[in-house]
């Protein structure tokens, strides 16, 4: 386990597609929201402008992954999308490793395949087009799920977390990032205002923010932080902490 803090990891640029997200400027826009080819094309820009501390979260996940990686095991990224996290990790993980990306969108994986070519001289990369609940997590020491669980039905979330716990090797780590809601309506109203101001600062017009919010209704279903932790505990994880939280987004680490 490494005890070295790597500031370069938090300062380096992410390998992101340059295409700008303008999907919700004019119609027709995806409603309900789906990860179709139009979304895939601008996904990197969309998520980096929509999730507070996105770069820092990926850097933090890479730091934790380096610390808990066990040689000879797998590091798995569920909902790997265009491969941004795996590419970042691959650059900074000095030990050769098997890096596995899982996503149920083939267009996402095609982008990921291109992005991950640069790290395949060091690491073995496997990309799997499948729903996460149908995958095996055996012989893994690190599993990362960033902003993916929130799109799954509640009963599937619990089943998936249990499957991850069972597949992780002893001492293995889950790094989970999610959009959450507050248990306090007053706080939630304040958080919503702060979040909309964040997106406006990143160049989204009010109409774009409202249209995407409408498209995501009943598609992205957030839980409270307490509910997230409870699901992890019910899945078998006993040691749980939060390295990052801002507005309505949180990252949790859970140890087997």
TrEMBL record:
GO biological process terms, alphabetically, are: methylation; tRNA wobble uridine modification
Domain of life (superkingdom):
Bacteria
Gene3D superfamilies assigned: Vaccinia Virus protein VP39
This enzyme catalyses:
prephenate + S-adenosyl-L-methionine = carboxy-S-adenosyl-L-methionine + 3-phenylpyruvate + H2O
Which CDD domains does this UniProt record tie to the protein? Answer: AdoMet_MTases
Annotated GO molecular function terms are: carboxyl- or carbamoyltransferase activity; methyltransferase activity; S-adenosyl-L-methionine binding
Family, per entry: Belongs to the class I-like SAM-binding methyltransferase superfamily. Cx-SAM synthase family.
Protein name as catalogued: Carboxy-S-adenosyl-L-methionine synthase
């Amino acid at each position: 386990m490494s005890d070295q803090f790597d500031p370069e990891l938090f300062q380096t640029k992410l390998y992101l597609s340059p295409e700008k997200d303008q999907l919700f400027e004019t119609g027709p826009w995806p409603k309900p929201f789906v990860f179709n080819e139009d979304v895939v094309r601008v996904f990197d820009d969309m998520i980096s402008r929509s999730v507070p501390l996105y770069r820092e979260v990926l850097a933090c996940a890479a730091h934790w992954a380096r610390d808990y990686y066990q040689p000879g095991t797998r590091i798995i990224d569920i909902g790997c999308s265009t491969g941004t996290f795996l590419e970042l990790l691959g650059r900074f993980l000095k030990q050769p490793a098997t890096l596995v990306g899982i996503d149920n969108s083939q267009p996402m994986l095609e982008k990921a395949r291109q992005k991950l070519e640069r790290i395949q001289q060091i690491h073995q990369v496997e990309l799997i087009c499948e729903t996460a609940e149908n995958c095996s997590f055996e012989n893994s020491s690190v599993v990362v799920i960033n902003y993916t669980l929130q799109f799954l039905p509640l009963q599937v979330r619990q089943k998936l977390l249990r499957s991850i716990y069972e597949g992780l090797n002893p001492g293995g780590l889950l790094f989970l990032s999610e959009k959450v809601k507050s248990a306090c309506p007053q706080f939630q109203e304040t958080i919503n205002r702060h979040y909309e101001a964040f997106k406006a600062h990143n160049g989204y017009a009010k109409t774009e923010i409202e249209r995407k919010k409408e498209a995501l209704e009943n598609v992205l279903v957030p839980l409270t932080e307490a509910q997230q932790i409870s699901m992890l505990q019910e899945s078998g994880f006993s040691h749980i902490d939060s390295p990052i939280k801002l507005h309505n987004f949180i990252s949790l680490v859970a140890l087997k």
